[in-house]
Amino acid sequence: MREDFGGQVALVTGAGRGIGEAIAIAFAGAGAAVIVNDINGRAARRVAEGIVAGGGQALALPFDVANETAVGAMVQMAVEELGQIDILVNNAGIEPKSPLLETSLYAWERTLAVNLTGTFLCSRAVGRVMYEQGRGAIINIASIAGHRIPLPDRAAYCASKAGIVGFTRECAREFAPHGIRVNAVCPGVIETPMTAEARSDPKIMRKWLDDIPVGRLGRPEDVASMVLFLCSGNAGYVTGQAIHVDGGKVMA
After folding, report:
1. What is the pTM of this model?
2. Integer CA distances (angstroms), 16 to 23, 84, 131, 236, in order
3. Helices marked H in 30-67 — which ranges?
C-alpha cells in the first residue's frame, strides 16, 4: 500500500539530517508539501532545496523548537504560507553523553528542553491549528532507550524519550475527539550522524548486531516508512501507541 499525501502539509522538526531528513523526503515523495524545520538553517535549506529540485514543495523554517516564541512564529509562518498543517513529526532531538554524576544541569535541562519540551510546544501550537481543521496526525520520535532499554551515560536522553512516550498517550487521549491521532515511534540503532562515532567501534558494532534479530542496523528510511504509515488512512484506527522500529531488538 503506497501512501498518498497529495494536498497535505507536513511539518517535520529536526529535518536537517538523519531520520528527520529521511522523513521529510519521504513525505515529499508521497506528494505532501513539507515544512523543513531545523535549528541549523543551512541544513534546513539544503533539505528543502533538494526536495524542490526533485519536483516537490518545501519550505525551510530554521527555528529552535525549545523556544516558545520561536515555535509560535514558525507555526504562524507555516499556516500563512501553506494554509494548513495536516501532519506534525516531532523529531528534533539531542543526545549528550556523560555519566550521571558528571552531567551538568545545563546539559540535563537543554536535553529535556529540546527533546521533551520541544515536543510539547510544537504539539500544542500545531494542535491548535488541527483543532480548527478537525483533523491531523502527530508522530513523536521517541526511542527504545526511553521505553525498554536505557543507554549508558545518557540519563537525560533516556528521561526525555520516556517522557515523550507518556506525553504521547495523554496527547492522544485529549486530541482524539477532535479527529487528531497521536503516536510515537521508537527507533532502535539507526545509521545516522548521531550514531556515527559508536558505529566506528568494531566491538560496539558486534554487540549491537548480536542483539538485533534481523542482523543489521536500521536505516533512516525504515523509520520514515513507519511514520508515513501511521499518518495515513491505513492507520486510521491507531492512536496512543509507541511502536518500535528496531529489528526485533526489543521483544515486548
Report:
1. 0.95
2. 10, 22, 28, 29
3. 41-53
φ, ψ of residue 198 to 5 degrees: the values are -65, -35
| Closest residue by Cα to residue 113 from 30, 178, 105 | 105
187 near 141, Cβ under 8 Å? yes
Task: Provide mean pLDDT across the span 151-173.
Answer: 95
Q: Which of 106, 131, 157, 237 is catalytic?
A: 157
- pLDDT tens across 76-95, in order? 999 999 999 999 999 999 99
Strand partners, 185: 141, 243
Active-site annotation holds for 157 = yes
Domains and CATH numbers, the chain: 9-242 (3.40.50.720)
Q: What is the structure's pLDDT at 252?
A: 46
- Quick: pLDDT tens for 18-52: 999 999 999 999 999 999 999 999 999 999 999 99
Q: CA-CA distance, 44 to 223, in Å (whole number)?
A: 19
